[in-house]
Amino acid sequence: MGGMAGCISSHAFESAMDTAVCGLVLYEHSAVGKEWFEICLNYLIAVTVGHGFDEGWNEGAGYGTSKNKWLTNASLYYDTALPDAHLGRNPRYGTLGDWFCRIIPVGMSHHAWGNQANASRGNHVAAFRKMAYLTGDGRLISNWREYGGDKFSPWRAWIEYVLPAHYAEPEPTQDARLARCFPVDGWVMAASGPPGLRSTYEQGAGVIFQCRPRGGYSHSFNSDGSFQLHAYGQMLNHGGGTSANLDAYAYHTMSHNTILVDGLGQAQPSSGMTYPTYGRIVGFQESDGLVYMAGDVTRCYPKEPGNYRRWGLPLDEVYAARALPYLERFIRHILFVDGSYFVVYDDLRCSQPARYTWMYHILPDSPVTFDANTFAVDYTAGDVPVRLQHIYRPEALELDNRKGEDGLVNPFTGEDYRALRKGDILCGHNLWITNREPSEEWHFLSVVYPQPSGGEIPAIERIDDNTVRVGEKTICFDPSAPSAAAADILVDVTQFR
Length: 497
Prior knowledge:
Blueprint lengths: L1 H4 L4 H9 L1 H7 L4 H16 L13 H22 L9 H13 L16 H16 L2 H9 L10 H10 L12 E4 L4 E5 L6 H6 L1 E6 L16 E5 L2 E2 L12 H4 L7 E3 L18 E8 L2 E7 L21 H4 L5 E11 L3 E14 L1 E7 L6 E3 L4 E6 L2 E7 L6 E7 L25 E7 L3 E12 L9 E5 L2 E4 L2 E4 L12 E2 L7
Parallel strand pairs: 20-21
Antiparallel strand pairs: 1-2, 2-3, 3-4, 4-5, 6-11, 7-8, 8-9, 9-10, 10-17, 11-16, 12-13, 13-14, 14-17, 15-16, 18-19, 19-20
Helix pairs in contact: 2-5, 3-4, 5-7, 5-9, 7-8
C-alpha cells in the first residue's frame, strides 16, 4: 500500500488497477483476495494518483489520460458492485477530470509534458463518459462529446452496458472558471473561454504552465517552468519534441520552453527526491482581463554532478562533471492579458557570472523574420501571425535560431540527441536567446502576441528594461521604476525572492 500511495511505477499502477476487480471476485474465497479488496477500496476512496500529488498526473496528458482509464475502470467495478459506496461523490474525481480538460484543450494536437505522443483524444473518449456517469459531473460528459464521443467505448465495453442501470446521464455543463491553479501538483491553466469547449481553442487563446513539486521522472519530462501557448486554433509554441517513448530530446530541458543556465538543464535522481519539492507555484491571481501566475523553478536544476540518467533519457556525461550549485534564483512570472496575449518575466540570479538561455520552439518551418533593433521575431503558426519581442536589455542578447535537427544539438555543452530521435515531429525553428556576456543577475521580459488571421498586431514598445507598453496598456515589473506610477499592470517580483 505504501508503494501504491507513493511514487508507484508506471506498469505497477496499471497492474494494480486492472486486477482490482480480483479483490471483488475473491473476497469471500481467499484471505489474499480479501486483503487485496481492502487495499484497492481504500486506495480508490483516497483517489490516490501514483504519478503526482493527487491533483493531476505528473506524466502529462498522454500517459496521464491512459492511467486515468485504469483508475476509472477500477472505480466503476467497485462502485457498481457496492451500491452504498458512492465513490463518485469524492470531489477528487472531478478535480482530475477538470485537470485533464485544461492540460489538453479540445483541439490541441500535441502535448508537451509526457510520453505517449498524442493519444489524448482516444483516452478522453474511452474514459470521460464513464467518469461523468460515476460523478454526475456535466463538465465531463460535455468534454467527452466535444472530443467526438457519440456512443459507448468498446474499451471495457461491459462497463458501458451497466452504466445506465446504475447512474443517470448528467446534463452537459461548462465550468465558469476560465483559469485554475493546481498548487499541490504544480500547474496553472487559463483560457479565454470554458476549458472543455472546442470553440475555446479554435476561437480564443490560452496558456498552460507547469512548475511541479515532483519534477520530471518516469514518463514525464525535465520541463518545469515551461509554458504552452495557443490561440485561434493553433499552438503558438511547441515543447517536448515528439513526446514519444525513448525520444531522449523530449525528456531534455532544451526541448521545452524554459531556461538553460550555462547550457545545463534540469535533472534529478531517477528514484527518491533530493528536496521535499522541486518546483512550486508561488503566485496565482485573477482579475478583470488578467490572469497572473508564477513558479519557482530553482530546485529543478542539479546542485551537484551526478548520474541523472533514467529510462528514456541517457543524459550526457556532462552532467556527471558539471552542475549548477551557483544558481540561486529562477522565478518565472506569466501574465495572460485580456484573453489575447502573454507577457513573461524571468527573474534569474547566480552567485557567479552565468549565461542564461531563453528557449522557445516553433513547429512550422515557415519563414521567421527578426528585427535586431527591437529584438522582435515575427512568424506564423498556421494562419495565425505571431510576434515575440524581448524587452530587457535587447542590445545585450543574441539569437541563435537552430533549425530542424540542429535544435537537438546543444552548442554550449556539445550534447547531441539526433541519433536518439523518435517519431517524425521536428520543430522548424528552435530559438536560443542568450545574454552575450555572463552576468550574476539577469531578467528576460518578453511579449508573445498572436493575432487572428488578417488582423494587425498592435505596437509593442519598450519603455525601460522592466516595462513594456502593449497597445494602450503599460505593464511594469519594477515598482521602483519611474514608469511604475503610470502602469496599468504592476508586478512586484521582489516579493517572491
